TrEMBL record:
One cellular component term from this protein's GO annotations in UniProt: plasma membrane
Molecular-function GO term, any one: chromate transmembrane transporter activity
Family membership: Belongs to the chromate ion transporter (CHR) (TC 2.A.51) family.
Origin superkingdom: Bacteria
UniProtKB keywords: Cell membrane, Membrane, Transmembrane, Transmembrane helix
Stretches assigned to coiled coil: none
Source organism (scientific name): Pontibacillus litoralis JSM 072002
Protein name: ChrA protein
Organism ancestry: Bacteria, Bacillati, Bacillota, Bacilli, Bacillales
Membrane-spanning intervals of the chain: 75-98, 110-130, 142-174, 194-213, 225-244, 282-310, 322-340, 371-389
Localization in the cell: Cell membrane
Tagged with keyword Transmembrane: yes
InterPro entries with a match to the protein in the record: Chr_Tranpt_l_chain, Chromate_transpt
UniProt main location, coarse: membrane
Length: 390
């Protein structure tokens, strides 16, 4: 078992160092490493885990990684998978926060370059996921309609509504299909543990605001703020930013420091929810980063531990499997909409940006170069052109 934990830590840590491009790209990296290369679960089970995590609040890609860790090594395996994948981003953002007052890099050229390369990485990931999750015209149509709707109504409620509606459409359209069940997701803990975990999720959500109101402590305030946001945010990634801004600006952090951290978070690999580590550092130093990071991700652990024991039974139900086909297709559409706004809109401002994004995409899609190499090439080219005044 120790050997299995070490392998899980090393693999997840390497992914944490190289997974640029946000949650969409993370899911593609996970699929390549955990499904295609290591065969820890099959394609159908992986797609179903993605659908499950899309239904839950919190960072979907991190939750998928935690789930795979639990399948591989129980609850401890889930913690190890999260630690390995998340720690590089946390360390980078804590260091950035410690020096941000002096260096003022929120407008740095390299951050702009990493935003541009993220466009290429995300577009590449969408194409790979689309081939598997929308292989026929019916599911392609669901994805397109979902993208169109979300481009008009870009809210967390719209995303949740789309997922629910797509599930209902899936039951209507695919219920009579012969649907593969996929292999069972093996777990090393019981449904009783799952029920306890869900109970703790609710207890913390209800109890922490009362504790924060009773104790005048910055650490209690940080825990309460980030636990609540981590418990209620649907859509993950960029959706967490406006919620956090409403909670911490201007009472706990200035808008300038908030936006600087936003730019840095997009520039580092790993989950965007580690933005909490940056904010915690600004508020209360390294201890604040530890509290904020734990509070932000703790709801995901409670929910994943609570729901997974019941997942094998649910996913074998014909209606649930049909609903998942619709949900998976809608997820592709949601990601397409997210590729445009906020990823494209925040990264592409000039013809130079478009040209470099096209070049980066070509390296990924046609030349089959690894994402980490494309990131390095893109940053160097972008900086070089900027130095030349282009």
């Amino acid at each position: 078992m120790i050997k299995k934990y070490i392998e899980l830590l090393l693999v997840s840590f390497r992914l944490g160092l190289t997974s640029f491009g946000g949650p969409i790209a993370h899911l593609a990296y996970f699929q390549e490493e955990y499904v295609n290369r290591r065969k820890w679960l099959d394609d159908k089970s992986y797609a179903d885990l993605i659908a499950l995590c899309q239904f839950l609040p919190g960072p979907a890609s991190s939750q998928v990684g935690i789930s795979i860790g639990m399948v591989r090594g129980g609850i401890i395996g889930g913690i190890i998978a999260w630690f390995g994948f998340t720690m590089p981003s946390i360390i980078a953002l804590v260091l950035f926060a410690l020096f941000v007052h002096e260096v003022g890099v929120e407008d740095a050229v390299w951050i702009s370059a990493l935003k541009v390369v993220a466009v290429a990485v995300v577009a590449h990931a969408i194409m790979n996921m689309g081939k598997k999750l929308t292989p026929d015209l019916t599911r392609k149509s669901i994805a397109v309609v979902a993208a169109m709707i979300l481009l008009f109504y870009q809210t967390a409620l719209a995303q949740i509504s789309l997922i629910v509606l797509a599930g209902l459409v899936g039951v209507w359209l695919f219920r009579k299909w012969e649907l593969p069940e996929g292999a069972d997701v093996g777990l090393q803990y019981t449904k009783r543990t799952g029920i306890i975990s869900l109970s703790l999720f609710v207890l913390f959500l209800i109890g922490t605001p009362f504790i924060a109101a009773s104790f005048s402590s910055i650490y209690v305030t940080i825990f309460d703020t980030f636990y609540r946001v981590g418990s209620i945010v649907f859509g993950g990634g960029h959706v967490v930013l406006p919620l956090l801004e409403a909670e911490v600006v201007p009472n706990l952090i200035s808008e300038e420091l908030f936006l600087a951290g936003y730019g840095a978070t997009q520039a580092v690999p790993g989950p965007m929810f580690t933005f909490s580590s940056y904010l915690g550092t600004i508020m209360a130093g390294v201890p604040g980063a530890v509290v904020a990071s734990i509070a932000m991700f703790l709801p995901s652990f409670f929910l994943i531990i609570g729901v997974l024991p019941f997942w094998n039974t649910l996913r074998k139900n014909r209606n649930v499997r049909a609903a998942l086909l619709g949900v998976n297709a809608a997820v592709v559409g949601i990601l397409i909409a997210a590729l445009y706004d906020p990823i494209w809109t925040s990264a592409i401002h000039t013809n130079k940006d478009i040209a470099i994004a096209i070049g980066s995409f070509t390296l990924l899609y046609h030349w089959k170069k690894p994402a980490w190499l494309v990131v390095i090439i893109t940053v160097l080219v972008y900086i070089g052109l900027s130095l030349l005044g282009l």
